[in-house]
Structures are given as C-alpha cells and as structure tokens.
Amino acid sequence: MPDLMDRAAASTPGLEALVDPPNRAALVGGAQRRLSWSELQAEARRWSALLYVHGLRKDDVLLVQLPNTVELVILYLAAWRLGIMVTPLPVQHREKEAIFAARQTGASAIVTARDIAGRDSLAMMRDVQSQCPTIDLLFAVGAGEGAVCIETALAGLDETTLADAAVGQHQ
C-alpha cells in the first residue's frame, strides 16, 4: 500500500487524495482537512517516524479507536510502512470490548482521540491501558494527560530524526 501511495504522490502530487468528513468538528474537533497525494505521503512518513521513535516495530500490534478522519488513514499507511499490525476498534465500542481486543491481540500501544463525538475516549483508553500489561504506549489525537499527544510529538520531529527513522525502518 505505501508503494501505491508513493507512486500516486510522484505522478499526481497536487491531486486531492483524502478529505475529512464534513462532521469532523463534531467527531474530534478541528477544521476539516483536505490532503493532496504529496501531503498524504509526507504525513504518513512523519507518523511512521513517530511510531518508530517510540519503539514500535514490525509485527507489533496497535489498537486503534479513531473515527473516519484523515488521521485514521494516515495511521494505517504509517503502520503498513513499518509492518505494524492494526487492530481497529469501532468508535461505538467501550472499555469491555477494548480490553478484550487488547488482551486477545497482545497490543503494545493504543491510538485514539482525546474525545470522540463528545465522549472522553482518552480516559477510557487510560483505563484499558491500566488493565492490559502489554500496552506500553498511549497516543492521542489532541492533547491529553497520560498520553503522547500526536500533534505535539509530530511537531517535535526534526529532519535528522525523520531521516534516522527512515533508515531504521528499512533495516
């Protein structure tokens, strides 16, 4: 999949590739985003580097509870780039289902949003993490206590870190 994205970014870099749903603000807050193929490629590479610098590697399992926003697609592309297995958890699922999925898969990290449609998803996932010893990391779209804020962490990635992560991903 990343190869297909890379080819699309090379052949049609400015063409629109991904658009948030019109109700993004109600789902996770923030303005609707529209990404071209080159922007999508750059975002996926940055997210991949973020996962890599936090220790996630091939065959690790990532439990993901995000609505259908651009971040979900970017995360899938970043995980595929690294060989990380994604276990999707529908946004309707609550703590009981999340704990079951985490235990069944041996998930080592969780990605969620601080709030999903007005529900404190981050608090729920902190509870899941506390009951699942395999989960070392909790990432959140939107700042939140007890989680790596994805936006802040992405902003902290410099070109050297991105280059080092890209090299490490291919070893």
Write a concise keyword list for the protein shown above.
171 residues; two-stranded antiparallel sheet; 49% helix
Please give a structural write-up.
The structure is a single chain. By secondary structure, the chain is α/β, with parallel strands linked by helices. 49% of the residues lie in helices and 16% in strands. The strands form two sheets. Strands 4-3-5-6-7 form a five-stranded parallel β-sheet, with helices on both faces. Helix 4 links the parallel strand 3 (61-65) and strand 4.
Structural class determined from secondary elements: alpha/beta
* Shape designation: globular
Quickly count the helices. Answer: 8
Portion in strands: 15-25%
The largest pleated sheet is described as: 5 strands, parallel
Distance between the termini: 19 Å
> Helical proportion?
40-55%
Mean pLDDT: 93
Strand segment tally: 7
Order of helices and strands: HEHEHEHEHEHEEHH
Low-confidence stretches at least 5 residues in length (pLDDT < 50)? none
Instruction: Kindly provide the radius of gyration, computed on alpha-carbon positions and rounded to a whole number of angstroms.
Output: 16 Å
Strand order of the largest sheet: 4-3-5-6-7
What's the short version?
By secondary structure, the chain is of the alpha/beta class.
Write the layout of secondary structure elements.
Elements: H1 2-11, E1 16-19, H2 24-28, E2 34-36, H3 37-53, E3 61-65, H4 70-82, E4 85-88, H5 95-105, E5 109-113, H6 121-131, E6 137-141, E7 148-149, H7 150-155, H8 159-169
